[in-house]
Design goal:
By secondary structure, this protein is an alpha/beta fold. The protein folds into 2 domains: about 110 residues, Rossmann fold (3-Layer(aba) Sandwich), CATH 3.40.50; about 80 residues, no CATH class. It is about 50% helix and about 15% strand. The protein has a 4-stranded parallel β-sheet, with helices on both faces. The longest helix is centred in the first third of the chain and has 15 residues.
């Protein structure tokens, strides 16, 4: 199936594309990349316009301020169109990235034992990932992903670029879904669509 994307940002776009490819679908046009507020404001219009062509929407639960994914869906779009896959990531996209424990340990040059076993339960998965990068044996990883001391940034200057590179080149969704129920449900939904 051919699906357009509606996502919060560049990392979410990379994950969405990777998942569609993994599940045998074609990737269409990407919309959004303007944060969760944009998706909340526009999701109904995108849902109405997707028709027979598919739409894959991803939003991070913790960004919305809602208590759980079900609350986001019920509030924003309780009855998505038949060709619209609307998934709320528990808790944020970094949960799914961290769920490929072997891959992220290798990418960050950290011991596998340091990578969390239950990424969906982390309070702030992005900060957990940055915390792992802070302990990396690689100076380049530390410089690219970790914010510089004394600056207001919450991530390193090349954080998004490097995480997108990881998703494109190394991230293994099949392994990751074993550690993230949220990701597993998303993949199951995508595989139910006609190819």
């Amino acid at each position: 199936m051919y699906l357009d994307l509606l996502v919060e940002g560049y990392v979410d776009e990379a994950v969405a594309k990777r998942l569609l490819q993994e599940c045998g679908h074609e990737v269409g046009v990407t919309f959004g990349k303007k944060g969760w507020n944009y998706i909340e404001q526009k999701i109904n219009a995108f849902d109405r316009s997707c028709g027979a062509q598919g739409l894959f929407t991803l939003v991070d639960c913790m960004d919305t301020g809602k208590a759980c994914a079900v609350e986001v869906v019920n509030d924003w779009l309780p009855q998505p169109g038949i060709a619209h896959v609307f998934r709320v990531v528990v808790r944020e996209i970094e949960s799914w990235i961290l769920a490929d424990r072997t891959g992220i340990a290798s990418f960050l040059s950290v011991p596998l034992s340091k990578v969390p076993l239950a990424p969906d339960s982390l309070a702030d998965p992005k900060q957990a990932l940055i915390g792992l990068a802070r302990t990396s044996r690689s100076k380049r990883v530390r410089e690219d992903l970790v914010p510089r001391p004394g600056y207001a940034a919450v991530e390193g200057a090349l954080y998004a670029t490097e995480i997108v590179r990881f998703v494109n080149e190394q991230w293994n969704p099949v392994e990751a879904k074993l550690q993230s129920d949220s990701l597993n449900r998303c993949i199951n939904r995508l595989t139910q669509l006609p190819r």
